[in-house]
Each structure stands twice: as structure tokens, then as C-alpha cells.
Design a protein that fits this description.
The chain has a domain at 2-67: Arc Repressor Mutant, subunit A (Orthogonal Bundle). The chain is 56% helix and 11% strand. It has five helices and three strands; from the N terminus they run ααβααββα. It has helices at 2-6, 10-21, 26-31, 37-49, 72-109; strands at residues 24-25, 53-58, 61-66. Strands 1-3-2 form a three-stranded antiparallel β-sheet. It is elongated and about 85 Å long. The protein starts with a helix and ends in a 24-residue tail after the last helix.
Amino acid sequence: MQSLAAISDPTRRRIVELLAVRDRTAGELVEAFDVSAPAISQHLNVLREAGLVVSRAEGQSRIQSINPAGFDPLVAWLEKTRSVWSRRLDALERELLADDAAKAGKSAKKPMPASKSKTNARKPVRSSTPKKT
């Protein structure tokens, strides 16, 4: 999945976030980062190749914008993965609840040991010898 690889880089993720707010020229994107114009250009090429960003010419400027359709395969993969994890986590929750219920049932049947019972707690023994001062 090329789109996932494309957004694995933090600079490219930030470019996508900026373009999600509004379309920008490459120059505007360069100003938002501490990297060179050629580096931003390479990042934009990766995003374009992945289908996440499109460019259009307006006069002498090339305007960069998000391609919403480019995110469809990524969204589909995320939904499928979420569904799998949801089922697994639901099953885990059921097991944990059943385990808790089983433990609660066992502890209700067992008498509390004398050493842990508050009514049978021993009082501290006081020494009969006086303290030295």
C-alpha cells in the first residue's frame, strides 16, 4: 500500500495536514518547514505518486491539494483492521469478564482466612519492659 508508506514520514504527514486545511503552493509549503525546496519537492512527488496529493497549474504557480480519493484504499484498510481488532478486543473483554465472574463466585464461597479477617486481627503486643531513655 503506497499511501501508507507515503504518510509514514512525519514531514509528509505534516504536508498532508497543511493541505487538508487549504491548497498551497510548493513555496508556501517550503516556508512551513526547516528543509530545502528540493526536499519538499521530493516529498510532494512521493505523495503524488501515492495518489494522495494532486497539482494543478495556475499561471506560473503549481497549486498542491489533497486528493480525497487517494485516501480511500487507506481508509478501507484501516476499517478492515479496526474491525479485526474490535472483534479480538471484544472477545478478550468477554473472557476477562467471565474470569472475573468466576473469581468472584469462588471468593464468595470460600471463608476468609483468620489472618485476613478484620474481626480476628491481632492487636500489637506491648512489651512489658520499660524503654530506656
